[in-house]
Structures
1.
Amino acid sequence: MSASTTKYIATVFCIIAFSLAASGQKLRFLIPDGAIVQHAGSIGYFSAGIDYDLFKNRKGSLDIMYGMQPHSKGGGFSTLSTKFAIRPFEITAAPWLIIHPVNPGAFLSYTFDDDLSLVHDRDQYIKGYYPLSEALRIHLSFSSEFKFNTSTLLKSGKLKSATLYYEVNTNDIYLTNYVQNTKGLSVTDIFKAGIGIKASF
Amino acid sequence: MERKLLLFLIIACLSGCTDFEYSPQQTFDSDSPRDLNKKNYERLLQAPVNDTLRFIVCGDSQASQNEVELFVKKANELQGLDLVFLAGDISDFGSLQEMEWLVRDFQNLKAPYFAVIGNHDLLGKGADVFKRMFGDLNYSFSYGGVKFVCHDTNGREYKFNGTVPDVNWLQTELIADGSVSSYIALAHVRPYTADFDPNLSTLYTDILNANPAMLASFYAHDHSFGEYHPNNSRIPFIVATSLGERGFLLVEIINGRLTYERIDY
């Protein structure tokens, strides 16, 4: 992806953000329900973002994350991700602790780097020569969450809960390899881990 | 409740058994192998040189981890094998993880192995991954009086800009040297095919033929065996099939004479 395209996308994001701010009260639903920081998990060495609750009883969530991958960790680029997950199971371990044991999810990650293009150049390659995008990855994920009810624990009104989670994910490249090589590769080869903390307001 | 706990245990196990990953596009992680071509050359130099030089040319290991395991077993059964060349397309998408999967299997080879860059390995950040894990895209070394000249011929990945293959580098590498009795060229894409720079096919073929001690040039990419003599070339342009097709070439050089056989496994 060229530097000019990156700047273009950044500009569009800024315009959207300013428009939303200007719209004020009508768009209250756009105020996030939480903030997240994450380490690893295939979206950058360190990433941070915002969280929206979806569905009744917060059975689903949509996270928008921005991750940094420093040169010293084999990167020198940043990644924008949109993560969706549902929470079908809930264990109330204590009045102050709820465990969501398995939360299936899916997410898209887009990495901004001059070497990575969204689609392969049609002048250079015939259609389908390389089937997958370089910059855009499609992920499948499973996470487990420990949700601490901070309003009970800390008698704090503003922070409703703090959630510690770990997540494993795989992506289209690894899955493509795995489905053709179920003997040579194991499930643990293609799933990669990350951990994070979410604060819900 | 029990079902939920079981699910929880499964995910906990999966998490405990998997590595943390920062990005699928990262070019290395804390335990990525480094400089493998150089390290394998150092291993090769420890081996005694004899009259017969035997090596494997294989290629296109991408998305073929099942077959790569079998290949390593087969190669380790061959007597007197000196070295192994993997002529490109180590990975399907140029990712660090795919190249690490290959090395996990190839490190079980008894003979030293050398990787050559393929077009798929240049996707994404693949060139950076390859350079750190294996070494330069164009490199050469001598063993037992034979000089192996490994190079990048994936012209399409450079939009046929006239720089790949690097003909000046090749000419320099092929200048006659008294300590070298034979030359072997190795690359991924053979000349006069769709992914080789069309403006360089003739010059490239002429350069390889100009050195009288050049015995043959080996490639992969076609996913089928073949021997070609474009423009009545003196030297053969020999193609190994893909590891996914469960085939490779076993090459022997005795007193400057080259023979080879196709092996299916």
2.
Amino acid sequence: MARVELENVGLNYHTEAGEVVALRDVNLTVKDQEFVAIVGQSGCGKSTLLSLVSGLLKPSQGLVTIDGNQVQGTSKRIGYMLQQDYLFEWRTILDNALLGLEIAKERTPEAMDAVKEMLKTYGLGGFEHYYPSQLSGGMRQRVALIRTLAMKPDVLLLDEPFSALDYQNRLSVGEEVVKILRERKKTVIMVTHDIPEAVSMANRVVVMTPRPGTIRSIHPIKMCDEGLTPLQTREVPQFREYFGAIWKELNADA
Amino acid sequence: MPNAEYSPEHQNYLRRRRLHVLLVRGAQLFLVVGFFALWEVAASRGWINAFIFSQPTRIWAAALRLAREGELWRHLGWTVWETVLGFSIGTVAGILIAILLWWSTFISKVMDPYIVVLNSVPKVALGPIFVVWLGTTITAVVAMAISVSIIVTIMMMHTGFKEVDPNLIKLVRTFGGSKGQVLWKVVIPASVPTMIAALKVNVGLSLVGTIVGEFLASKAGLGYLIIYGGQVFNMSLVMASVLLLLAVSVILYYGVTLLEEKVSRGRA
């Protein structure tokens, strides 16, 4: 079943210096509960693609649909995680996790209980009244994830969500996040420039060309289909083959 | 008291730190006491003319006389009241205008050159205009205090609003937040430190505005006392008023610092 569909999507940026074609002829179908990773060089428009799916931007050409309905503005069904946790330093952990619900005016006692429960489940019980500066990078990232999950989105968009973490944390937080997203049966589109990260987490890796960005190739990754976790996937011999193939394609454009 | 858990080396370090703090405090106390003592001696020995320079004991006597006549509290009260009024109105109005400029890029672009020009005008020069328009009333004095602080507030707050991390705003937008929610949930709370900085600047500026206002258009207040004392050559009265003014500014500034500690608790 197709959750997210992009048909001949293109996007042009307008500045006083001229018109920039950021994306061109993008066609992509993401199935329900699929994890799709998009890799490409900086400036190839991969973050722009997420903005289009989230409804923050409107495509210049083509159509973006979720479950067959055209995307028109932001929606609760789509959760967006940015490159850093962007927790508000002046809010407690609980108030940060409730931000989305508060904006949607759904900060009900039941919703609060659900968020508290989630904090407990993901190792943040007892930290509700702490401030972000008192937490480690990995814990902060989990709060950001809970803040997004609190809205109960079907589709999650991850924009290099681990890039602000150090290598050690990146692996362990990545492992956790993938586990959580699989448990909750979310459909995920993740943008990254870290090829091993993409191969270790995704069902399919989409390689994009430099600007104007379009899809160059799509690599199905069989380890993820078999249910291996990211860390387990990194141990499998084929991991290097996938890496090599994708790396060669990205380099061919450089 | 030495803590048994600390090594002798660490205890020694702590002792030296304490001694250093004590030395700084001692030197500070010495400066102020020495200054007044030297002044007193110089005046009583005739090294300086006590009629022109006054003398700490005479200043004290002048202040006591004012207090006995009940005049002290009246003048002090006027100055504090006018400053607080000017400070509050200037700050609130400045923040509201900064919000308007943040909200509308068009208005902010149109207003930009005018704000720059208004900022560079010495607001004190507007004093006589306020007196003609508003009379020699408290309104003229408060108008003076507002005019001195409002433009700086607008500029500081508008800059602060614009410097809020755009990713925090994007986050609120991904949750479907409106512009009003961006303002209330992100821009204003993120600008609290800027707001405190603006308050600190404004306390001093409002006091300047109030005193200048009282110089020009008042029958009461420390500014009036200073001008009056100067005109009748009562330097003890002038000096007493200046010292009281010093005390007022310290207390007002301390008030803002207390507020800062209160709101910054828990922030990074």
